[in-house]
Design brief:
The structure is a single chain. The chain has helices spanning about 5-25, 25-35, 60-70, 85-90, 150-160, 175-180, 190-200, 230-245, 245-255, and strands at about 35-40, 50, 55, 75-80, 95-100, 110-120, 120-125, 140-145, 165-170, 185-190, 205-210, 220-225. A five-stranded mixed β-sheet has the order 4-1-5-12-6. It has a three-stranded antiparallel β-sheet with strand order 10-7-11. The protein has two domains: about 25-120 and about 220-255, Periplasmic binding protein-like II (D-Maltodextrin-Binding Protein, domain 2, 3-Layer(aba) Sandwich); about 120-210, D-Maltodextrin-Binding Protein, domain 2 (3-Layer(aba) Sandwich), CATH 3.40.190. The protein is α/β, with parallel strands linked by helices. β8, α5 (about 150-160) and β9 (about 165-170) form a beta-alpha-beta unit. InterPro entries: Solute-binding_3/MltF_N.
């Protein structure tokens, strides 16, 4: 370089550009683009599904729109089946995951996960005529569940420990629900969202929720690329604000209902 002054000036410009690029993150990109692309699963009602007009709807869809509104951008729902949630994020087809994603340590090796924005509580689903009003009433009753699920394994183990009653396994969740409705078994254990969707469908008019089951709560998080600390910090605060302002409870009542109380989003005796 023959002109030292020019070299110094060029170096300063390049350094400034590099620093600016390094400081910019996905949050800035989203705001600058005017669009928030959310990976949402639309075959998991009432969290995500398509309504009668084939439009995306559900708790997760509303949550995406809430986030976009706060950011001052337009929301775009990117339909992603459960196995495609992380690939959609990593490949750049989506900016964030809003798709009931369990906060597992294995998953956290690939993507960044926020504090929980929803928690699936297991509940007892039974008929109106069984006399079952809470979990302890299942003892001695014929119960069942969908083969291979966490709740099926837990319920079958309880029946064996009780030494009374019976357990039957079914091939699908629909088979299990039908068995309860038709009296082949008296009750089952499902997530609170499945229970809500089942009752709202009107398909089984003789079913009811009979309290919570004492099983592990499934905490789910929003997701972003693991390296996007600015965006992840913002998402954590957004989840916090959703709870503080009452919006979380509002969406819970809208999509899950009032027969079931929302699970606490914090782990007892643990700062989360």
């Amino acid at each position: 370089m023959k002109n030292p002054a020019f070299a110094v000036a060029l170096s300063a410009v390049l350094s400034t550009t590099f620093v600016a690029s390094a400081q910019a993150d996905k949050l800035d990109d989203i705001i600058g683009s005017g669009k928030l692309r959310c990976a949402v699963t639309l075959d998991f009602p009432p969290m995500g599904f398509r309504d009668a007009s084939n439009n995306p709807a559900g708790f997760d869809v509303d949550y995406c729109h809430d986030l976009a509104k706060i950011l001052g951008v337009e929301a775009e729902v990117v339909e992603t089946p459960f196995p495609d949630r992380i690939p959609a994020l990593v490949s750049g087809r989506a900016d964030v995951i809003v798709a009931s994603t369990s906060d597992t340590l294995e998953r956290a090796k690939t993507v960044g996960l926020t504090v929980p924005y929803f928690a699936f509580q297991m509940v007892v689903l039974t008929r109106d005529d069984t006399g079952i009003n809470d979990f302890k009433d299942l003892k001695g009753k014929p119960v069942g569940n969908t083969s291979g699920t966490y709740e099926a394994i837990a319920l079958e183990k309880d029946v064996k420990n009780w030494g009374t009653g019976s357990f039957r396994a079914y091939q699908s969740q629909n088979d299990t629900l039908l068995a309860v409705a038709q009296g082949h078994i008296d009750a089952t254990v499902v997530t609170n969202t499945v229970a809500a969707a089942t009752l709202k469908s009107g398909k089984y008019k003789n079913l009811k929720v009979a309290g919570n089951a004492p099983y592990v709560i499934d905490y789910v998080s929003l997701g972003a690329k693991r390296s996007e600390y600015g965006l992840l910090n913002y998402l954590d605060l957004f989840v916090n604000q959703q709870v503080r302002t009452g919006r979380y409870n509002e969406l819970f009542v809208k999509w899950v209902g009032t027969d079931i109380s929302p699970a606490d989003l914090t782990v007892p005796k643990v700062y989360y």
